[in-house]
Amino acid sequence: MPKMKTKSGAAKRFRVRGSGSIKRSQAFKRHILTKKTTKTKRQLRGTAEIHSTNMGSVKAMLPYA
Fold it and tell me: What is stated as this protein's family in its record (predicted)?
């Protein structure tokens, strides 16, 4: 059987931590930032963990992670 391919779009968006949880970057921080408050933009910094309901689909896209 051939090797499974990693979805390249998912590989750019997600990173697997040592504990097995998957981190992602926050959305809504790329453009149209003038109408967003400083507080909103500050709270969108950093990373978040993906929700447990999405864990199966993300792990299927990253078979070797």
Answer: Belongs to the bacterial ribosomal protein bL35 family.
Task: Answer yes or no: pTM beyond 0.85.
Answer: no
pLDDT number for residue 65 = 87
Share of the chain above pLDDT 70, in %: 100
Task: State the Cα–Cα distance between residues 65 and 63, nearest whole angstrom.
Answer: 6
Q: For the domain that residue 56 is a member of, what is the CATH number? A: 4.10.410.60
Three-state secondary structure along the chain? CCCCCCCHHHHHHEEECCCCCEEEECCCCCCCCCCCCHHHHHHCCCEEECCHHHHHHHHHHCCCC
